[in-house]
């Protein structure tokens, strides 16, 4: 009888290896004398923006009333109107009775704003989401076309898949933006999403084709023998079963898409990667920013795989 | 009810040409039970699949209720709704419950309301003796139960004819009986049936007529008495000696 192996020695070994590797990296970085500036990173997620509040016309300050953290400044304008401005109490710039000229700042309002790392992340997410939905639709259609018995239809799909899979995504994005985008006067976002969707679609098509062909022939025959039309049999019988099987490779494809979307930064779409590059040009916190950007991609992709894992278990009830 | 005229089906694979069905002409009258027997590879499956157009044939005609399915203008889906088929491998829809297996085509093809379809399905499940399994998924059923569901699924469309392609060949021996019982009951109720089977007992007991096929052709045709007591053809005698 084989005794069940103890896990903890291996966990210990794993921890040791990881620590040694981290120490190695730390040591190497030490040698090149890099100055870490982690404190600079948080402001690129969220920062306090101070918006100056200015008077729209000349006038006099009638009253400055402070309550809690905000101050209410009442100003009599020259046109006879009275206006109240709310600013942060600590930023009040004027006193009672003071004469103001048009455009003078009475104080500031501070608001929390999304920094470039978060706006970049949002851009990355929506571009990936849009390209995924579009890519799924394209892939579904191309996959179905590929298994069509009609020569022309299946060849069209095959040519599309071959071209996309045989060329680099970066080149496709350039072509979509500089060539097709110029000819049809496309917005850079449209070009970027379009290129990503076409790219993902080709891989999805192959996944869909393989998924459909993995369903036993008897399923289609049973459906047809009951009088269902080909589209009915496809949507009711074949695709639901195929989709369940292709969920793992499909989700892998969409996770890739999120990572590949970083390439749209070359056509000046300010996604997470481009935001990172822009921050670096102004801070020189190269190491920190790239590590943070990588971690952000990693978080998004792991959340997505967790979600897919959950879906798979939900769908497994009929097995 | 069914009339076939000179049906020919040729498979070409790797240069070789197989005449799987080679000029088969026969009829199945309303209420008749016709059993097709023959050695493996004789074209029984291919022939019965030609009858509902699952296999497209190279020449000849198949008339269902007078409608030629070889005619391009025929709506094959309409014909198939009238011709139930039961497969060797059951082919239940694994992602649907037993009840949904029975109601799906009723609703999509026959356009029945959910309540009507459910009622019909439950009635048929009671008839084949598995009413209590209606919300199970097919994978949870035994082979015999699955095949009975498959029969009920075909019956739910109110077919005029039922085709069976070796319905008991994939079953463990102890489950063969329960499926044959359902088929016998159907035959007694007057269902028109065409059955490919190796169950000689069933053929002898239920068949109105037996067809013996070999090499894609009908070699001999007759009543069970004639067939099992005094077969004319040498090939039939040889085959029966092997299986009985
Ligand atoms: N899809 C196909 N492609 C090529 N040849 C085929 C195909 N289907 C059947 N055949 C051939 O046609 C012939 C008849 O096959 P069929 O399945 O109809 O025989 P059968 O009488 O049903 O045999 P069994 O009792 O084993 O089921 C066989 O020689 C078989 O190899
Ligand atoms: Mg067969």
Automatic annotation (TrEMBL), chain A:
Subcellular location, record wording: Cell inner membrane; Cell membrane
PROSITE patterns reported in the protein's UniProt record: ABC_TM1
Its membrane topology: Multi-pass membrane protein
Domain ABC transmembrane type-1, first and last residues per copy: 121-308
Keyword Signal: no
Keyword Transmembrane included in the entry's annotation: yes
Pfam families found in the cross-reference section: BPD_transp_1
Protein name as annotated: Putative glutamine transport system permease protein GlnP
Main localization, broad class: membrane
Keywords, comma-separated and alphabetical: Amino-acid transport, Cell membrane, Membrane, Transmembrane, Transmembrane helix, Transport
Source species taxonomy: Bacteria, Pseudomonadati, Thermodesulfobacteriota, Desulfobulbia, Desulfobulbales
Transmembrane segments: 12-29, 125-145, 157-180, 192-212, 289-311
Record-stated family: Belongs to the binding-protein-dependent transport system permease family. HisMQ subfamily.
GO terms for cellular component: ATP-binding cassette (ABC) transporter complex
GO molecular function: transmembrane transporter activity
Function recorded in the entry: Part of the binding-protein-dependent transport system for glutamine; probably responsible for the translocation of the substrate across the membrane.
UniProt xrefs under Gene3D superfamilies: MetI-like
UniProt record, GO biological process: amino acid transport
UniProtKB/TrEMBL annotation, chain B:
MF terms (GO), sorted A to Z: ABC-type amino acid transporter activity; ATP binding; ATP hydrolysis activity
Domain ABC transporter: from-to ranges: 2-240
Keyword Transport: yes
Keyword annotations of the record: ATP-binding, Nucleotide-binding, Transport
Source superkingdom: Bacteria
UniProt record similarity statement: Belongs to the ABC transporter superfamily.
Name this protein carries in UniProt: Polar amino acid transport system ATP-binding protein
Lineage per the UniProt record: Bacteria, Pseudomonadati, Thermodesulfobacteriota, Desulfobulbia, Desulfobulbales
